[in-house]
Specification:
The protein is an all-alpha fold. The chain has 19 helices and no strands.
Length: about 325
């Protein structure tokens, strides 16, 4: 057989093969699933990784009222392996998990949902409903706090203004603390200095969350607000603020840290230890004497911190 004839036969065979694949790819009637993906799933063994999650498997985790009917570990496994499963009908079911009692369930539900742009971030969809829930004072504080957590997990910077409003206006410290942690999760200091505002909150847990968040939010630069917390009534907050100032290399905080480094001024040894550690990080010569004095501190951990700081000071 001559070459042109062979070439024509090969082209014809390839064309028939493509038609066969194309027709089989769009045979699935399920409108919530990409047909091509459904065709692939039909050919997978039940033990394969890709078969762990599918629209049917996700829907089977819920009863008719939308409540989960399987163990949390099962939910985590199905959603984790279902990152690319296309199922618009599953979005409303999974969105209910944003308010689950299990923190990991809430986290992985938000992770799965934030990959569904059109079903989550469109007007009136999951994102909008979460914002409305956060602002709704008729909801329980736990529900509002979990809405704040969901905004943080969605990682949309547009949510910062809603979290900032909750920090300033929500009556519940549980919600305000959750809003601070959500800003930390999305690496945002909030609008109009919301993270600094949280450092002056009347509730200790909110202030503590804000001080801890300050070292994880890249844009945070309000050293004055952080320095003010080394005079806080809570030893936990004084310790965290002292350590944060060292992490941020806040040179202007040396005098305040020196005051915290002495047992005459600070009776909590963990605060003194944090202050000494930060003075070592700042390596300001003016702190050399107080660091030397800390070598005789009654607490062994403070003395250890002083030895480490001394290597940077003298």
């Amino acid at each position: 057989m001559n070459t042109p004839v062979i070439r024509r036969l090969l082209v014809s065979a390839l064309g028939l093969g493509l038609v066969a694949v194309s027709s089989s790819s769009y045979a699935d009637p399920d409108q919530s699933t990409h047909a091509g993906r459904a065709a692939v799933y039909r050919n997978l063994q039940s033990s394969s990784l890709e078969a762990v999650s599918s629209p049917e498997v996700i829907r089977s985790m819920f009863d008719r009222s939308g409540k989960p009917v399987v163990a949390p570990t099962r939910i985590w496994k199905v959603l984790e392996h279902g990152e690319k499963v296309e199922c618009l009908g599953c979005i409303s079911l999974v969105s209910g998990l944003l308010y689950d009692a299990q923190p990991k369930t809430r986290e992985i539900a938000a992770w799965w949902l934030r990959r569904r742009v059109f079903g989550v971030f469109g007007p009136g969809e999951v994102y909008s409903r979460v914002i409305d829930t956060l602002a709704d004072s008729s909801q329980t504080e736990n529900t509002r706090a979990r809405a704040a957590n969901a905004l943080g997990e969605f990682l949309s910077r547009a949510g910062a203004k809603h979290l900032s409003r909750a920090i300033r206006e929500d009556a519940s410290p549980v919600v305000r603390e959750a809003a601070v942690k959500a800003l930390e999760r999305m690496n945002s200091e909030g609008t109009d200095g919301a993270l600094s505002v949280a450092m002056t909150d009347g509730d200790e847990t909110v202030r503590l969350a804000a001080v801890r968040a300050s070292t994880h939010v890249n844009a945070f630069r309000d050293v004055a607000a952080l320095s003010a917390r080394i005079g806080d009534s809570s030893a936990f907050i004084r310790r965290e603020a002292a350590a944060a100032l060292g992490i941020m290399r806040a040179k202007d905080a040396v005098d305040g840290l020196i005051a915290l480094a002495s047992p005459e001024h600070e009776d909590d040894s963990s605060v003194r230890m944090a202050a000494i550690w930060s003075l070592g990080q700042l390596a300001d010569p003016n702190a050399a004497d107080v660091v030397r004095a800390a070598l005789n501190d009654p607490d062994p951990f403070v003395r250890d911190a002083a030895r480490a700081a001394g290597r940077r000071l003298y």
